[in-house]
Amino acid sequence: MTGITKPAARPANPRFSSGPCSKLPGWNLSLLDNALLGRSHRSGPGKARLKEAIDLTREVLQVPDDHLIGIVPASDTGVVEMALWNLLGERGVDVLAWESFGKGWATDVVKHLKLDDVRVLEAPYGELPDLSAVDFSRDVVFTWNGTTAGVRVPDGDWIAENRTGLTICDATSAAFAQRLDFARLDVVTFSWQKVLGGEAQHGVIILSPRAVERLESYTPPWPLPKIFRLTKGGKLIDGVFRGETINTPSMLCVEDYLAALKWARDLGGLDALVARADANAAALSAWVEKTGWIDNLCADPAMRSNTSVCLKLSDQAVAGLSDEQAAAIPKAMVKLLDEEGAAHDIGAYRAAPPGLRIWCGATVETADIEALLPWLEWAYATARADIAG
Q1: Does the residue 15 lie in any domain?
Q2: How many angstroms separate the CA atoms of 296 and 150, rounded?
Q3: What are the backbone angles phi and psi of residue 72, rounded to the nearest 5°?
């Protein structure tokens, strides 16, 4: 017996996955009724829909007018790879890595692009590297919000305004929930399936004038696959930034993204989206602060994500347990909550420390976070009793 009664009420929406993330409140298939199906994406109406998606992205995300926005293949991974393969090699590179995806970009730069002059500034899960050590005469690659660690940069103030290198920022779990400092970012990437809960497989690349200048003045020494090519004859292929996509997009996914953008715009735009994510993260954090068996993986509140919130068992909770028992408890909790329909897909990322990862982005309702909390208590008590006695 656990001593804790199973909660009576479940979250109305138990989808707390960190990607693909929960769809917007009230989402239903009728939102896709006007999808441009069976028509070419290169037709007038097709290009108009893609251009509308670009324009609404600019409006909701508050992208400066002098930055270009393009829809490209292969989700955020494809966009980051596109940026790395097109832009790097002109000068030395600093890569910041404090969680799985940042470490992946470091691997690509070092082992696949095989650049000679690379510094990898690392930190363990739950922490940030020393941002003061970054050299902005070099190109800098980093994640704004570490999806698998729950750690984000606090702001853009650490980025030099008078930099001579480019900043390439993977912002996929930050865009639409955190304020990106576009004045200090030269390349920003994200995918539709994160904060806005859109369907996957498409990515967005945002280029500053400095990034465009690099593209038109520097040719990398390696061949570029067609789906990566942003220039032709030394000039930017500007049609990509007007809705003329490099390859065939899913117009069904485009319609879904448009529905999410319109929901966000009508809600109040970026301010409203940030406020929703902040409220969700605050509700979860308040419970963590008063609960003895759980802690934030990120110890510094200023660096904690408001979207992909990563939790671990506290020192108090694991005292007297073997490493195997301590790791087994959150895994058992995830299984129990999934079976009960109280929370789906909230396990820590496979390469991260054992724990829980709860998405608090803008499409999640605070009432559902609050309804989840008693279930976490029940699942912990049940799992601990079964595993540790």
Answers
A1: no
A2: 8
A3: -135, 170
